[in-house]
Amino acid sequence: QVQLVESGGGLVQAGGSLRLSCAASGRTFSSYAMGWFRQAPGKEHEFVANINRSGGTTSYADAVKGRFTISRDNAKNTVYLQMNSLKPEDTAVYYCAANVYGIAKTRETYNYWGRGTQVTVSS
Q1: Strand pairing report for 10-13 and 117-122
Q2: Least CB-packed of 5, 26, 44, 82 within 10 Å?
Q3: For residues 35 and 65, what is the distance between their CA atoms, to the nearest angstrom?
């Protein structure tokens, strides 16, 4: 089992930045690939970014490519999502998730989820 707790969400104006953190406890953090997903009101969960176990491979949704950066610190059991040039359409609850099988974009392949952190971008 691994427990995930997101933090860093909040209200920001369009064009601003936020840095989300996801702290993991339980089994060895470096055993998991990690992902960030988001869910806007009335919409399905949407893939945002993922990172492999070592941090050497990442991928992004087209909607955030060039604006968001995912990273991890295995010594601190934490994965981050740096979000720059935020837009109102980035407003959502952001979730981190752990995948024992490896890096993936499909929500159903992730084994463990945090409870989410709200990000609101005002225009």
Answers
A1: parallel
A2: 44
A3: 14
SS3 label, residue 86 = coil
Q: Per the structure block, which two tokens stand in for 56?
A: 């050497």
Taking residues 10-38, what's their average pLDDT? Answer: 95
Query: What's the chain's length in residues?
Result: 123
- Burial class for 36, CB neighbours closer than 10 Å (0-12, 13-18, 19+): buried
Q: How does residue 119 score in pLDDT terms, banded at 50, 70 and 90? A: very high
Q: Give me the mean pLDDT over the 30-39 stretch.
A: 96
In three-state secondary structure terms, 95 is strand
| Residue 27 confidence (pLDDT) above 90 | no
Structure tokens at 20: 């989300």
SS3 for 55?
Answer: coil
Edge-to-edge strands of the sheet including 2-7? Answer: 2-7, 18-26, 78-83, 68-73
Query: If pLDDT is split at 50, 70 and 90, which confidence band does 92 have?
Result: very high
Question: Which sign, positive or negative, has the C-alpha torsion 97, 100, 104, 105?
Answer: negative
